[in-house]
User: What shape does this take?
Amino acid sequence: MTRRLLAAAAAALAVLTALVVGLWFWAGVVAPGYYSSIALGVAWFVAVSVLVGAVAKRRPGLRRVLRGSFLTATAVTLAAFAWTSIRETEVNERLDSGTPASSLAPEQRPEVEDLLAPQP
Assistant: This one.
């Protein structure tokens, strides 16, 4: 009984460690941007899901623990993502403003017509 409980605790801890460390590495270190971070994080969770399924197939006694810890970690991760990314409704950014070129005196206007065009 004690050995079985220890194996279950070790399996749950292994799943959680794999998810946290992999998510940090792939989404936090490797990914160059916001959307690539999300994509790599999702890909990592899919990879761990496949691995958990393979281990659960080989060790039927750990199936509930493995799947339960994976699904719990996935639910917590989704809730944290929603809390930090989706719920934001207000933007607090400083916007730069300037004088339109058309309202400047002719001697103050830029010499180039299209300021966004590549300059020589």
